[in-house]
Design goal:
Layout lengths: L7 H6 L13 E2 L6 E2 L2 H8 L3 H28 L9 E10 L2 E11 L4 E8 L5 E4 L21 E11 L2 E14 L2 E14 L10 E4 L13 H7 L7 E5 L8 E5 L12 E8 L2 E5 L1 E4 L2 E2 L4 E5 L6 E3 L1 H9 L5 E2 L5 E4 L6 E5 L3 E5 L5 E4 L4 E4 L1 E3 L2 E2 L5 E5 L1 H4 L2 E6 L4 E6 L5
Parallel strand pairs: 5-10, 6-9, 17-27, 18-25
Antiparallel strand pairs: 1-2, 3-4, 3-12, 4-5, 4-8, 6-10, 7-8, 8-9, 11-12, 11-28, 13-14, 13-29, 14-17, 15-16, 15-21, 18-27, 19-20, 20-24, 21-22, 23-24, 26-27, 28-29
Helix pairs in contact: 2-3
Length: 415
């Protein structure tokens, strides 16, 4: 995908993602054994700077939202319950060099079922998986369509674009199970071509959880499909994503985790039924709003936080000793000990764990910040933020697609 003129600097310094090396390094997954390299490791391996690696990740995030915006704009132009309440699956936290890079879990596809790992993403809406005929690296975890008696090829093409990464294949249907919940006809991309940019992710496929309006397939994403077919009675799902540990993270569809049943939640309404976009009062330092207001997507599929450039400047200017790298990224004293967060309508200020402000060490007493400035437009043409896992891991987060809101409760054990 081509980048718009709004992003010339980051596009100019972006580099292609590094291939996974033969030697063992980084964090290995429980099933696949494929490493996920940290930002610092990718910089060292490629000979590029931390800023360049972050710029590449930024470009990919930008392109995802540009692609989704186009789908949403095109959409704007153009069963009985079986009493199953919910199901929960475990997620693996891939932590590299102190940064929680992503979270993935397992779905079962086909008949007989095949266990496939997926990255679960509230910033997109498509489910896609490489097949046995894919050009991508196959260590035995790709979906084998020939072994599923319920697989159906629709004959239509499928493609998705994620910045410098892309995938393509055919639109298909098959049975998909999330824990004990099963749908017999789930549309997904049966991918045969995957760019090498996906070599650095341990999950085999991607499961988008946002609204149908931005689905390239044109069909209901998995949570909506489960609800529409009566497999879940509550149109919501809850994320528990952990920090600095490979276990404990989980995703619940059709409800929330049992240990949060009596927890106090604070909610804010979804303002655009594309991604889970909400309004904010601004970004905060020391509990006080230091920027203007802006909308934001709450995105489990993004590691870092991206805010409008004016908000980023105001945020970092409120922290003593910071410096701009003139590309959207900032350095700050590693010894900083204040509080940082976001303020939301109906909620007020929510701080996130200061340890998660860290995205890399410059080796001179300063660290690269996980809050970056980038002017990205939503469907309505407003500059908006993408609030990723850096923030989300401090809260148990509920996404409701019936009453359309996002709700937060402090993560158990968070500091």
């Amino acid at each position: 995908m081509l980048f718009s003129a709004a992003f010339p600097l980051l596009a100019a310094i972006a580099v292609s993602a590094s291939p996974v090396p033969e030697t063992k390094r980084g964090v290995y997954t429980l099933r696949e054994g494929k490493p996920r390299l940290s930002i610092e490791q990718r910089a060292a391996l490629s000979g590029q700077s931390l800023r360049s690696i972050i710029a590449t990740d930024t470009a990919n995030v930008i392109a995802k939202y540009e692609h989704n915006k186009q789908l949403a704009q095109a959409a704007q132009e153009g069963g009985s319950l079986d009493k199953r309440a919910s199901a929960t699956i475990s997620l693996t936290d891939v932590n590299s060099e102190g940064v929680d890079e992503l979270y993935y879990g397992t779905l079962n596809m086909g008949t007989p079922s095949q266990a496939i790992t997926f990255d679960f993403d509230t910033g997109s809406s498509d489910l896609w998986v490489p097949t046995q005929n894919s050009n991508g690296r196959n260590d035995g975890t790709h979906f084998n369509t020939a072994k599923s008696s319920t697989y159906r090829n629709t004959g239509q093409s499928f493609s998705d674009q994620y910045g410098s990464g892309s995938c393509s294949g055919t639109l298909a249907t098959d049975t998909v199970s999330f824990g004990s919940l099963k749908v017999s006809t789930q549309y997904f991309g049966a991918v045969t071509k995957v760019s090498t940019d996906f070599d650095n992710t341990p999950a085999t496929g991607l499961c988008g959880l946002a609204y149908q309006s931005i689905a390239s397939t044109g069909h209901a994403p998995l949570p909506m499909n489960l609800y529409n077919t009566g497999k879940i009675s509550t149109p919501e799902f809850g994320f528990r994503i952990t920090a600095d540990t490979s276990s404990g993270a989980e995703l619940t569809l059709g409800g929330i985790a049992s240990d949060y049943a009596s927890a106090a939640f604070k909610s804010t309404p979804v303002t655009s039924q594309t991604y889970y976009e909400v309004n904010t009062n601004g970004i905060t330092v020391g509990g006080s709003v230091v920027s203007g207001s802006f909308p934001a997507a709450i995105d489990t599929g993004t590691t870092l936080i991206y805010v409008p450039t004016s908000a980023a400047s105001a945020f970092w200017n409120a922290i003593p000793g910071t410096s701009s790298n003139d590309d959207g990224s900032y350095n700050y004293p590693c010894s900083y000990s204040g509080t940082v967060g976001f303020s939301f309508p109906n909620i007020g200020n929510l701080n996130f764990n200061l340890n998660d402000l860290y995205a890399g060490n410059n080796g001179d007493g300063t660290c690269v910040g996980a809050v970056l400035g980038q002017d990205i437009q939503d469907v309505n043409g407003n500059n908006f933020a993408i609030i990723g896992d850096v923030f989300i891991k401090s809260y148990y987060t509920v996404f409701n697609f019936g009453s359309n809101y996002v709700a937060f409760s402090p993560a158990h054990g968070s500091t």
